[in-house]
Structure formats: C-alpha cells, structure tokens
Amino acid sequence: MLRCRDIVRHGEAFVSGEMRGWRRAGFWLHLLFCRYCRRYIRQLRTTRAVSQALPLAEAPAPDELDVLLARILEGAPAQPSAAEKKEGGL
Ligand SMILES: [Zn+2]
Predict the structure, then answer these.
(1) pTM for the whole thing?
(2) Domain of 70, in residue numbers
(3) pLDDT at 78
(4) In a domain, 85, yes or no
C-alpha cells in the first residue's frame, strides 16, 4: 500500500491523469482510507483548476522590462496609473 509521502510525491501525476493502471488504483485505495491525502488531492485539484482558469499574461518587451524593474525598485506600482498612460508613459 502506498504511503502518504507517495501521494504527495506523485499527486500531480494522479490529478493530471498521467498516472494509469495499478499505480492509480493504489492511489484510490490509499485515498479511501486517508482523509489527509484526500484533502491534499482536493487542494491540488483546486489549485490546478484555478491556475488553468487564470488568463496568461504576456511577457513585457525587453525595453519595457527595464522600465518596469526601475519602477519596482523605486517602490512605485508596477502598473502605470491612468494619468501616466495618458501622458505616454509605459
Ligand atoms: Zn495518506
């Protein structure tokens, strides 16, 4: 029988559906008896669903990256304000 550490180590493969056969059956068997791992797998599924629902952000262009880094180091918000956008800032 699988141990809790096996569930943690291979939980992502189980949740993603990559795991098949007897190994998957062993997972189900462990989850049947271990509420802690059921909770862990539920959290993995939730995290996966939320991350897949988020839109992908476009990476800034290299010249924008320097400006963005300077803004972060100054302690300014990473996103320019509406007034700055009108002035032709970032
Ligand atoms: Zn367990």
Answers:
(1) 0.61
(2) 1-80
(3) 60
(4) no
